[in-house]
Amino acid sequence: MARTSHWIAAAVFAAGLPAIAAEGPLAKDMFIRGAFNGWGTDNAMAWKGKGVYEADILISPGNHAFKVGSRDWTSEWVIDPNASVRVAPGTDYRLDTNPGPEDYLFVRQASMYRFSLDASDPKAPRLRITRLETPAVATVDPHKGHAVEQSLAFRTYDGMQETARFSVADAAAPLRSYAHSTTMQLRDPGPQHATYSESPGLPVARTGNLAFDALFALAVTEMKQDSVSEIRDGNYNGGAAIPCECFETGEKWHYVWTRDLSYAVDLGLAMLDPARVRNSLDFKLSAFRPGVVKATQVAGSADGLQIIQDTGSGGSWPASTDRVTWAFGAEKALRALPPAERKPFAARALAALKNTIENDRLAAFDPVDGLYMGEQSFLDWRDQSYAAWIVNDIASLASSKALSTNVGHYKALTLAASLAAEHGDAALAAKYQAWARALKRAINQRFWLPGAGMYSSLTAAHFDGAPMHKFDWLGQALAIVTGVADSARSRSILARYPHGPMGAPVIYPQQQGMPVYHNRAMWPFVTAYGLKAAALGGNASVADAAYDTLVRGAALNLSNMENLEWLSGQPLLLDEKNPSLIGPVINSRRQLWSVGGYLGMVIENVFGVSLEDGGIRVQPFITGKLRREAFGKSATVALNGLRMQGRQVDVNIELPPPSAGNGYYEVASVTLNGTAVKGLIRWDQMKERNAIGVKLGVLRPGQQALTRVGAHPYAEAPAVFAPHEPRITSLARATDGVRLGFAPGGKGAGVLYNVYRDGRLVAAKLAAGSWHDRAGSPSSCYAVEAQFAASDNRSHHSEPRCADGGIDIPVTDSRVTSSVPVRPPLPRFAAPAIHGWGKPGDSFTVKGIGIASGGDYSIQLRYHNAANQINLGISGGVKWMALKDATGRTVAQGVVQLPHARVEKADTPLVHSTPLRARLAPGVYTLALSDFYNMSYLDSNSSFSAAGGTGGPSNSVDIYGVRILSVYPGSAK
């Protein structure tokens, strides 16, 4: 996963303080780590004597998750290892020294808190939190004495108004210094104002709108702040710094994450600092560790150079496969780099893409529906955007298919095909071009929902497979900007994706009972992709909504924030009646992809400068509203000092007079150094310094359809929320079909239910209760969906259930042989198991599997994987399963996934792997299991602190048996 907090739990290392003195009873430094400090090590517990350590922390309003943890997270202490606790200040709590869920501190207003840790008995430490008096801060007027000032006023959801002010001492200065203040309460404690300056060698905007020019300067400044010489994360290198002339991810995220970086580069960073972009992208490539024995089935070159899937759901890849988003950034970097630097990076990119593509094809591609499996891109806090039951069955998350991730695979294939052709490998180029065309067809066939006029965000998992009535703005926008969506579908998406009063949420509809983060949120980088899509599709209304969202967010927050609550636009919606729903749960300033999105908004959309192979294209998208409201007093707007490939480019746009109409202005003419040009402006056409003139023509109506929805931010209203997913309570085969019972998954009136058999809708708008499927068969599998009658918003599907009871073969069966012995049941588990199976060279075989009737079957392992928590790590089990008939012929083979599973204090549930699909004739079969690989085999993870890191690769699980079901495990039949 890219970034994650310990609310879901992975640690992110904030800029660490020096180690505290090795005093007192603790053997290592301990820190207060929480959402208020990016889960980093800013707040060390300082030794005070008599067994007591303290940390004083200024904390903003919110319901903050936190833990007491060591620098490398080898120690993490919580109050209760089984449940989160809301801490009451002034109360003593005994800490458990075992890992567990986060505890919470609710803060009404920004205050100083003292965390006191009594470690007199290191085996039973105690924690007390005390609110301290917070010193008053002197009021400062940052605008005093400035000659030019401008204010922007914004209406709020509750009928009030917030204002951002901008000023400069000298508006005529070649490089301005800005003061910027806001009336809105900021997310994190600190001054309500900021100052920043334009920089030599970086572009500046001159539009006649001081606020517009200032906010562009703010984004450039924050790009420079995110430009670092070293990075760090508590899970890597023992928390110590790693040298890298890279982009870090944000103020609270000091590492480089594959998807964050790649989207940021694609949106706007590539043309401003291509060398640092290349360094950062290269940091996200890795070969296999020295000494790793490559399994026979693993594809690609011997070194295994490939894109890194960051730590996350179920133990990372291939439960998540959106590492391919690296291609979005790489493509832009290759366009921006000068030829001498581009050539070696292009060769390395092709090698990495090839190995990634070939192994993703083995581990995550479904040949039946032509799609790639894996978690949604960036929406990686499972219960925020998946069904509630998915946390107990990460294999089902792994086998689902996501729109955004599949579009990422499409981008990887098209880029690899282009690079292969460039390097003279015509056969490889043709192969990847064919795969890309087929994937594009599959996306349009499987994800498109005609009734909704949009793509489904994701399909249900194995034993269901239906595309669900869930939608996300990133997936829709990426489909448009990559050309996966044709013009008709693009128009439909732009017109129908629901926008709130402050802009487009990243998912729709929202999930009940979940705090704000991916759920109930706007993310500026996603808004920026929506803007790109709107410009391509000519939808002025959607573009205007995006312009408004991005400007408002940066202006009122003094920064390009990580995310905002979608109905209020707030960086923190403080719901005191429901503190568990407060959010965004974490929110960082100068978030890299938000910065990239704002830069791209100005450079690529307003001024129209985009990188293409061999040069640039200039195609501004200035709407009637933007002309009137942002540039109403200007006849021209300019972007000066844009430097690309050793050339400086100044862009000057001549604006028509403002008009009352809506739409966007067509480009009447473009000149380069006074000479008219059309289409691509090639690098060899340019001088060392270039003036590009653009004259805008008539206002074209374009597309103006926009869907607006709304509700009060504190109300989980059916207008914008989905119902809870229902539960199948009973399933029974009968002589005349199959009978199933189902019940609501939560409270709520006006809910109807839809039944799916094998991924196809077979009954609609039922009341809760039961249903008789007279067409059901012994191999049928069912899922139920809830929908609000009033809004048609729908839930995720229920956990599927199948009519077939299946064949269960425990590891104690005489047909099972293994190189690892069977052991008696462990505590919390009711059955014997083969513990720790999966090291290279381990063998597992089941002989004499009798199949009486021919048909479609799915084969799964019953297992447990406790190598890490379900949201963390790089140690998801990834194995190769092969099924042979009596003649020794292989009839089915492929990767099966055994992701991390939950560990409870009592009665830990066993889980099933992803299924291997097989079409079998009656007969006797042999199943064999062997090694594949996971992300822990990569050299980049050799310093990882948990399983699969410093101790060597981890790809072992506990096997309890094999299950064979007479069902079809893939997409809808």
UniProtKB/TrEMBL annotation:
<dbReference type="InterPro" id="IPR012341">
    <property type="entry name" value="6hp_glycosidase-like_sf"/>
</dbReference>
<dbReference type="GO" id="GO:0005975">
    <property type="term" value="P:carbohydrate metabolic process"/>
</dbReference>
<keyword id="KW-0732">Signal</keyword>
<dbReference type="InterPro" id="IPR008928">
    <property type="entry name" value="6-hairpin_glycosidase_sf"/>
</dbReference>
<feature type="signal peptide">
    <location>
        <begin position="1"/>
        <end position="21"/>
    </location>
</feature>
<protein>
    <submittedName>
        <fullName>Esterase</fullName>
    </submittedName>
</protein>
<dbReference type="InterPro" id="IPR014756">
    <property type="entry name" value="Ig_E-set"/>
</dbReference>
<dbReference type="InterPro" id="IPR013783">
    <property type="entry name" value="Ig-like_fold"/>
</dbReference>
